[in-house]
Specification:
Layout lengths: L1 H6 L6 E6 L4 E4 L2 E3 L6 H12 L3 E6 L12 E4 L3 H12 L4 E4 L6 E3 L19 E3 L3 H7 L6 E8 L3 H11 L4 E6 L11 E2 L1 E5 L4 E3 L3 E2 H20 L1
Parallel strand pairs: 1-4, 1-6, 4-5, 6-9, 9-10
Antiparallel strand pairs: 2-3, 7-8, 10-12, 11-14, 12-13
Bound molecules: cytidine-5'-triphosphate and calcium ion.
Pathway: Cofactor biosynthesis; coenzyme A biosynthesis; CoA from (R)-pantothenate: step 2/5; Cofactor biosynthesis; coenzyme A biosynthesis; CoA from (R)-pantothenate: step 3/5
GO molecular function: phosphopantothenate--cysteine ligase activity; phosphopantothenoylcysteine decarboxylase activity
Keywords: Decarboxylase, Flavoprotein, FMN, Ligase, Lyase, Magnesium, Metal-binding, Multifunctional enzyme
Length: 229
């Protein structure tokens, strides 16, 4: 087994992967969240581990389970906790793949008691921006580190993805096309376009998230190979 492992392409490479949604608490019983299932991130973590990488998976609330027993899972709830877990594991990580659907806004205060229904009117919750984890990692990227982000867009997809690639100092970005049926949050399939920092664009067919994870990992392996050459 030792000999087989040695031949795997990502042996000795430490990777962190974020997955799933974040939940931003409003009061003890309510939160702001989103429909991310975590499937894509878990599939990437499994594939990286299968290829020999030392994987830490930082996941928001998700029902997914890792298939690879070597994946180290850190469960978090909020965007702030996800940031903290990323920072704890970032310095010695060669690869960072941020596939989580992190909340952009979080309530300014968390009510300590359940908010009671009032007579008349609606309820307004004041929010503040969360830290953009991916941009923070991009701003602090060390030489040799490889940073991968995702973009979920509904319009002006490629230009928005390229803007994110540049703004967040990424090596490549995975654009999720929601316009296609069978692609997105809850499905088992995804349709992606990879755009790298040379602005080279590759569009893939609709396929299972496990196969999408393979395509993403092959892109990583090809970048690592070019690095060595
Ligand atoms: N991301 C992050 N931390 C945040 C917000 C986003 O790490 N607080 C990461 C996501 O994991 C993803 C990438 O940034 O890899 C893009 O997320 P997306 O929501 O598409 O982009 P935003 O920059 O948040 O812009 P917008 O939601 O306005 O499109
Ligand atoms: Ca966002």
């Amino acid at each position: 087994i030792a000999n087989i492992r040695k031949k795997l392409p990502l042996v000795g490479i430490k990777a962190i992967v974020t997955a799933g949604p974040t939940y931003e608490a409003i009061d003890p019983v309510r939160f702001i969240g989103n429909h991310s299932s975590g499937k894509m991130g878990f599939a990437i973590a499994d594939e990286l581990a299968r290829l020999g990488a030392d994987v830490t998976l930082i996941s928001g609330p998700s029902a997914q389970q890792s298939k690879q027993r070597t994946v180290k899972r850190i469960d978090v709830t909020s965007a702030a906790a996800m940031l903290e877990a990323c920072l704890e594991n970032y310095t010695d990580a060669k690869l960072c793949i941020m596939s989580a659907a992190v909340a952009d806004y979080t309530p300014v205060t968390i009510a300590t008691q359940k908010i009671k229904k009032q007579d008349g009117g609606g309820l307004t919750i004041e929010t503040k921006k969360t830290t953009d984890i991916l941009k923070f990692l991009g701003d602090n990227k060390q030489p040799g580190q490889l940073l991968v982000g995702f973009a979920l867009e509904t319009n002006n997809e490629e230009q928005n993805a390229i803007d994110k690639l540049k703004r967040k100092n990424l090596d490549f970005i995975v654009l999720n096309s929601l316009s296609d049926e069978g692609a997105g949050f809850k499905t088992n399939t995804n349709k992606i376009t990879i755009i790298d920092k040379q602005l080279q664009k590759t569009t893939f067919d609709l396929k299972s998230k496990d196969d999408v994870a393979k395509d993403i990992c092959q892109k990583i392996i090809s970048i690592l190979k070019n690095e060595k050459a």
